[in-house]
Write a structure and sequence with these properties.
Blueprint (H helix, E strand, L loop, with lengths): L9 E6 L20 H17 L3 E8 L6 H9 L1 H4 L7 E4 L2 E8 L2 E6 L6 E4 L8 E3 L6 H10 L7 E5 L2 H9 L3 E4 L3 H4 L4 H50 L10 E4 L3 E4 L4 E3 L7
Parallel strand pairs: 1-2, 1-8, 2-7, 4-7, 8-9
Antiparallel strand pairs: 3-4, 4-5, 5-6, 10-11, 11-12
Helix pairs in contact: 1-7
Length: 275
């Protein structure tokens, strides 16, 4: 029987911003493919499909930037209904302005979603937030830390990114990766090529989620079957596997004949059952 612990019915999806969700070569904040609706519909479909299998999806953002900028503000606003499920303190209203809790290159801040002028630094090291900004270094360790906060196995994590400096170590760690590196090969290109690639990656992402939810269901079913089997076999263990610690003499059963006391070599009558 398996010695696995309880199955975590959750999937962690970590999103990059620059050149993945957003076209950072544009002067204004522009969603990749030009459509915010495309991404929100994709995430809604993921949540719906996972929920039908009893699986919760946790969304996080891990991006390489110097600070919380306009792109971060748009992302935090548009993705709010997904990110706020991470915990209950991700978003706060402070002085009539909406703020998002962000880990920004070593410190926790409440960043304003209306302007960049308001910032509240929190001198608390053990907070949790789904919005991470880290200028340098690969993102694999951050994803692993986010997964541990929700007890999610690493093989139930999905990572969207365009940079192979982040993609390669994530794959080596066992994280499922959807690569958006193709944008550099297509740019500048016709919109239809970019949109086709986005659709292709959307299908890959949906198949990944379906694969993980299927594995979660299989694990849960296996553990449930093992638990039922143990419960059914428990009464029989006391009949066929008695404890000899409570017996003063060691007895040996000779099938159909007698019980033999091995310590005294004396025959003890064996009473046959009547049918």
């Amino acid at each position: 029987m398996s010695n696995q612990g309880p199955v975590t019915k959750k999937i962690l999806i970590t999103l990059d911003l620059d050149m993945t969700l957003f076209d950072s070569r544009q002067k204004r904040v522009t969603w990749m493919g030009g459509s915010e609706k495309f991404w929100l519909d994709t995430f809604d479909t993921i949540e719906t499909n996972a929920r039908e299998q009893g699986v919760e999806v946790i969304f996080t953002v891990v991006t390489s930037k110097e600070c919380f900028d306009d792109m971060c503000s748009v992302a935090a606003t548009s993705l709010r209904k997904y990110l706020e499920k991470f915990n209950g303190m991700t978003y706060r209203t402070i002085k009539n302005k909406e703020h998002c809790l962000v880990w920004d290159n070593g410190s926790f801040n409440f960043e304003s979603l209306q302007d960049n002028s308001t910032q509240y630094n929190l001198n608390k090291p053990n907070l949790k937030t789904p919005f991470i900004i880290k200028q340098f270094g690969n993102k694999t360790k951050i994803i692993e830390q986010l997964a541990r906060q929700h007890n999610i196995p690493i093989n139930q994590c999905i990572f969207l990114d365009d940079d192979w400096a982040n993609i390669r170590p994530a794959r080596n760690a066992g994280i499922h990766v959807v690569a958006y590196d193709w944008f550099y090969r297509l740019y500048p290109s016709k919109d239809k090529h970019i949109k086709q690639k986005l659709d292709d990656n959307k299908n890959i992402l949906l198949r990944m989620v379906a694969h993980i939810t299927h594995n979660i269901a299989d694990k849960a079913g296996q553990l449930e079957a093992e638990a039922i089997n143990r419960a059914l076999m428990a009464p029989f263990h006391s009949l066929f596997l008695p404890s000899y610690r409570s017996q003063s003499r060691l007895l040996e059963y000779v099938p159909g004949i007698e019980l033999v006391d091995k310590s005294q070599k004396a025959k003890v009558p064996f009473r046959r059952a009547k049918y």
